[in-house]
């Protein structure tokens, strides 16, 4: 059996950093499914599987191609129902949809402003040209102007995690006693921040930090396989 996950990296293929790809890495580990991760640079993505996708993650599961992190998680639960569930039923899917929306609209926007210049600096020249053009169009300003406000973004970041912090007072994971895909969604965001900027920018005794450390330890410490910047 051949199972390949295409993910995203900068100049160093040993340091994949995409939050969406990390969700799928953790989901595959959760399911106990063997796979090979094949990180690719931004400008190499159109060459994957003969042009099968414009974005990663892309999973090739023995010839079946599945893209989009959430769709991959749904596929894994439907295709391998005898292995640990990623959602725990329809309610868990609905919860994960909410967590995904929260992560994309609140966390990702903040992390982009904190780490965008870091990301630019760890990718190759051709990728830098693409990245600068696309991100400056999205952000409406030069990367250097975004980076100039980085300290303010870092100071404001912990408050954006207050919903998770409040919930962790009564349970160790978003999924309850153990992790579900909803945990991997937020983990992916903070892992992206950790790998590209060197820190989650949270106090060590913050309940979210403690939860993140638990997630890093999951699946034989897969999350620790890539160190902080």
UniProtKB/TrEMBL annotation:
<dbReference type="InterPro" id="IPR054416">
    <property type="entry name" value="GST_UstS-like_C"/>
</dbReference>
<feature type="domain" description="Glutathione S-transferase UstS-like C-terminal">
    <location>
        <begin position="94"/>
        <end position="202"/>
    </location>
</feature>
<dbReference type="InterPro" id="IPR036282">
    <property type="entry name" value="Glutathione-S-Trfase_C_sf"/>
</dbReference>
<dbReference type="InterPro" id="IPR004045">
    <property type="entry name" value="Glutathione_S-Trfase_N"/>
</dbReference>
<dbReference type="InterPro" id="IPR036249">
    <property type="entry name" value="Thioredoxin-like_sf"/>
</dbReference>
<protein>
    <submittedName>
        <fullName>Glutathione S-transferase family protein</fullName>
    </submittedName>
</protein>
<dbReference type="Pfam" id="PF22041">
    <property type="entry name" value="GST_C_7"/>
</dbReference>
<feature type="domain" description="GST N-terminal">
    <location>
        <begin position="16"/>
        <end position="84"/>
    </location>
</feature>
<dbReference type="Pfam" id="PF13417">
    <property type="entry name" value="GST_N_3"/>
</dbReference>
């Amino acid at each position: 059996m051949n199972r390949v996950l295409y993910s995203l990296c900068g100049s160093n293929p040993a340091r994949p950093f995409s939050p969406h790809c990390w969700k799928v890495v953790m989901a595959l580990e959760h399911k106990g499914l063997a796979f090979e991760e094949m990180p690719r640079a931004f400008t190499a993505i159109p060459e994957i599987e003969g042009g099968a996708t414009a974005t990663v993650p892309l999973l090739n599961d023995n010839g079946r191609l599945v893209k989009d992190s959430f769709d991959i998680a749904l596929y894994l639960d439907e295709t391998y129902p005898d292995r640990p569930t990623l959602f725990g039923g329809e309610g868990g899917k609905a919860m994960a949809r909410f967590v995904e929306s929260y992560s994309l609209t609140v966390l990702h926007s903040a992390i982009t402003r904190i780490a965008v210049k870091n990301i630019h600096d760890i990718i190759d020249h051709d990728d830098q040209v693409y990245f600068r053009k696309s991100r400056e169009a999205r952000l409406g300003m030069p990367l250097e102007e975004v980076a100039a406000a980085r300290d303010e973004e870092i100071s404001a970041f912990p408050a954006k995690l207050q919903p998770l912090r409040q919930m962790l007072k009564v349970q160790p994971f978003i999924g309850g006693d153990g992790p579900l895909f909803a945990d991997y969604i937020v983990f992916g965001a903070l892992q992206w921040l950790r790998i590209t900027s060197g820190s989650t920018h949270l106090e060590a005794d913050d309940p979210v930090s403690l939860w993140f450390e638990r997630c890093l330890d999951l699946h034989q410490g897969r999350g620790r396989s890539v160190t902080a910047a």
